[in-house]
Amino acid sequence: MLTASTVIAMSQKQFENFTASSLYCEKCKAATPVRERLLLVLPDKEIFDYLCTECGSSVGQREVTAGDKLTAQAMSARRAPAQLLH
Ligand SMILES: [Zn+2]
């Protein structure tokens, strides 16, 4: 028999995969649930796109670098490449 605590533990486990469950959408003018979509995979980082589940527009992006994977909510510090790789 499933107890209530078992169900809670299961849902908490699922939530570990979601770093952002809702973001502010300018079109909806409200915080809406978002869908995370892998936008781009680069050799040193991955870029995720957050889509509003209400209207489908992009409400944010997240860059995950190898070093940033520990800090899931890293600020979107955009560092321009200082030098080109040859
Ligand atoms: Zn929206």
What would you call the structural class? mainly beta
Shape: flat
- Number of extended strands: 4
Rg estimate, integer Å = 17 Å
**Major β-sheet strand ordering:** 1-2-3-4
Poorly predicted runs of 5 or more residues: 13-17
Written overview of the protein:
With 86 residues, the protein is mainly beta. Helix content is 14%, strand content 37%. The chain has one helix spanning 4-15, and strands spanning 22-25, 30-41, 45-52, 58-65. It has a four-stranded antiparallel beta sheet, with no helix packed on it. Bound molecules: zinc ion (ZN).
In a few lines, what is going on in this structure?
This protein is mainly β and 86 residues long.
Descriptive terms for the model:
86 residues; 37% strand; four-stranded antiparallel beta sheet; single chain; 1 helix; mainly beta; binds zinc ion
Set out the fold topology.
Layout lengths: L3 H12 L6 E4 L4 E12 L3 E8 L5 E8 L21
Antiparallel strand pairs: 1-2, 2-3, 3-4
The structure holds zinc ion.
